[in-house]
Design a protein that fits this description.
Blueprint (H helix, E strand, L loop, with lengths): L2 E5 L2 E4 L4 E8 L7 E7 L6 E6 L6 E3 L7 E6 L4 E6 L8 E8 L5 H4 L7 E2 L3 E6 L1
Parallel strand pairs: 2-11
Antiparallel strand pairs: 1-3, 3-8, 4-5, 4-9, 5-6, 7-8, 9-10, 9-11
Length: 127
Amino acid sequence: QAQLVESGGGLVQAGGSLRLSCAASGLTFSSYIMGWFRQAPGKEREFVASISWTGSITYYADSVKGRFTISRDNAKNSVYVQMSSLKPEDTAVYYCAARSEGWTLVALRTERSYNYWGQGTQVTVSS
């Protein structure tokens, strides 16, 4: 049974940095596109970033482009997002997700196109 477990969340001041990790098990990790989404209080879950099977291609939401970097280590079955220049509006629960289908930008931004989800990790950015 596939399982995704996020870690690394916490409280950080605006302008600070944080690195989230997601460890996968029960699936052939290198066969999945990996993504990060987030959900702020009272808002719908939104796309943050995706990374291709080998990590050679990445895709970001405009709101995080230039500040966040997604990466993966297939040997460790893990995906990461390095977040810098954090803003209070980045406060949310962050989720990692795995997608078995192809690299289609519209689908990558759509949460229902992902097969597996983690439980989430809270990130709070104070002003």
